[in-house]
Amino acid sequence: MMKKKWIPLCMLLMGFVFPVSAAPITHVQVTVKTAQYTLPSIVQARIGASIQTVGNHVLLNQDSQTIKAQQAAYVRTLKDIVNRVLIGYTVDDISLKPGTDTQLMVRIRPWNDTVQKVTLSMDYGAVTPLGKTYIQEDIQSIEGVVDNLLLGLPIESLDWAQFTVKEVLEKKIADMLPEFYAHITIKPGKTSAVTIFFIPKLPVVRQVEANVESEHVPQLLFLQAQRNVANKYAGLEGLPIDFVKRHSMAIQEQIYKDMSEQGVIRRYKINVAPKLSVGEKTQIYLQAKTRIYDIRGLVYMDIGRTQNQYIGETVLQAHLGRKIGTQHEVFTDVQLRPGNFTWNMRVGYFCQAKRVKLGIRYETADETVHVFGNVDWQKRWQWRWDRNMTMKRNEWGFRHRMRNYLGIEYVVSSTDHWIRLLGYM
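Above: the chain's sequence. Below: its structure in C-alpha cell form.
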C-alpha cells in the first residue's frame, strides 16, 4: 500500500529533474515588411513564398523550446539564407517567435535604385487604325496595372520578378482581350520600358463588303455613302472574328453615326439601319427607310414575248409614293418607253401587311383598272399577281433579285409567257 503512495511523488520529482520537451513546430507564419514603400502585391506574394520555403526548411518539426533557447543563432541562419535567396533586397531585421505556430517577420529594403517610372508602348502589328481604337478601349486600364506591378521594385530584382510580372500581365490582358495573344518585354531601369505585342488569334476577317438595301429610296443615291462606309470599315480586316462579333453593337452604332452625317441622308431625312454579318467575309447591310416617301426607280426589258411590239422593249419606271401610316400608300408610277417615246401614268393605292401587298391602280395609256398583289419571302424572292379588270386578263410573275441592282422574272399572262430582266435604281 505504501509503495502505491510513493509512485505519484516519484513521477513529480522526475518531471523537475528531467523536463518534458516542448511541442514541435507544425506551422510557420511569414510576414514581409518594407522600410519605406509598399511592395506590389504580386511581388510581395512571390517574396513571401520564397521566405516561406526557407522558414519551412529551417524551422518545421524542430523543437520550439530548442529554437527559443538558440534563437539568435537561428535568426542569423535565416537572415543569411534569405539574403542569398532574395535578389535585389537586403534583410534589415528578422523577428522570430517560436511556438507550435511560429511567427516569422522579415523586414527588407532594396539594394540600390528602384523603378521610378514606367513607359508603356503597344505594338499592334498589322492591325489597322480602326482596329486599334477598339483594342485600346478594351485595355485602357492596363497602364495602371503595369505601374502597380513595377513602380518601387529594385532594378536588380527584375531579373527574377519580371517573369512573375509578365505572367500577371498576360493573364490580365487575356481577360481584357481574349481574342489576342500578348507577348511582353521588359527593359529594366529607373525608367523601365514595357512593350506589349498583340497577335490576333485565328480566324480573322479577310474581306469587308458594304451593301445597300433600300425598298423606298433609289439605291443610286447611296453609291457614294456606300463607298465611304466600305472604305472606312475595311479597317476590320485582319481582326479576329470573335473580336469583331464582341464589338458588333458598337460598330453598328458607329456606322449609324457615320451614315447620319452623309449629305444625302440628311437632305432626304432617311433612316439607315446598319446590320453586321461577321465572318471571314464580313457584310455590312445598310437598310435605308423613310417614314413619309416611297421613291423607287426600275428599268426592265422583256425577252421572248410573242407580241412583236414588246420584243426587246425597254421600259423606264419611276415610282413616287406617299405613305399613310405604316401600312398604306397612295402612289403614281410614271413609265417611259424610249423605243417609241410613249408615256404611261399609273395612279393607285395599296395596303401592305408584313410580306403581303394588295392594291388597285388606274393606267392612263390604255385606260384600264388593275387589281394586284405581291408576296415576298426569303428577302430576294417575290410572287406577284396582276388582274386587268377592264380587259379581264391575268398576269403572274415569279421574281428573283439576284443582286442589289439586278433581278430576273418569269412572267405568265393569259395569252403569253416570257422572261423579264430588271434593273433596280
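The radius of gyration is 41 Å.
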